[in-house]
Amino acid sequence: MKVPVSVRDFTTGATRVLEKRKETTEVDAKLKTHQQEFVLKRQSFRQQREDILKKEGTLKESLLNFDKFLKENDAKRTRGLRKAEKERAVVGQKEAEVERLKEECAALEQTRVQLQCAVERNSLYWAFLERVLQISKFDEVWELLGRFETLLVTREQLLRREGEVQEQADSQRGALHRYHEEASCQLLQQNNLLSQLQTQLDETRSDTLRWESKWNHIQTTAAKETLLLGQIKVVTLNLYHMTGGVTGEKEGVAVYDTEAQLEKIQLFLQNQSAIVNDWNPPKALH
């Protein structure tokens, strides 16, 4: 069964194959160098050992033939023995170094075998790359891998940009939602104000009609008539001022012109109704 291979795994596998091949080549070179040094050092050690054995034989023969001379020159003999002991120590050190080099060579050989196995395991990536290279416009595997790396980087940049755009869109949707809520609050306030003004206007008109129906009766009593008419005018004037009306100025309404004040109040209510209708947003679709 074939296991699907992603672009990143495929690129990483091919890169590992090249790296493992490079490491295998370097290990082989180091192994050959150590082997050559080992052979040269072993030959040198053999030559030194043979020289030392010859020197020891010469010394023993000299001891047998010139025992009397060596006794008379005990100091010279002692120096010779010390020198031979030092040479034996040097040979021991060289032999230890040879053993160490053998261990290093064995370790390098084991590393080379492991790298070779890794190269064989990842060879399918390399074979796939070569097949793709035959049908692509690229001449070298490194160019193909570079193209894949560029596409991966571009894809990550596009995903990051898409996230940023999505965040901006969410922020704008939130701002729009807050605007709708604020507009709804303002609309509710305008409706409440309009309702209050309409109620006051209805009450004022009702009072006006009621007092007009009693106008004939009020005319019979001057004081009472003046008082009631003054109350109506005061209420109308207060309502007119509540709507922002101006009195006593060039473009204002006269203080005692109650009918003009009522007309201004009615016009104000009509304008407020138009404003409320304009602020009424369409219902959102869910």
Instruction: Give the uncertain stretches in residue-range form.
Output: none
Q: What's the number of extended β-strand segments?
A: 0
N-to-C order of helices and strands: HHHHHHHH
Number of helices: 8
The residue fraction in helices comes out at over 70%
Q: Roughly what is the average pLDDT, rounded to an integer? A: 80
Broad structural category: mainly alpha
Rg for CA atoms? 56 Å
Report how far apart the termini are: 49 Å
Detailed description of the structure:
The protein is mainly α and 286 residues long. It has helices at 7-65, 67-72, 74-121, 123-135, 141-213, 215-219, 222-242, 258-279. Helix 5 packs antiparallel against helix 7 and helix 7 packs parallel to helix 8 (258-279). The radius of gyration is 56 Å and the shape is rod-shaped. The relative contact order is 0.07.
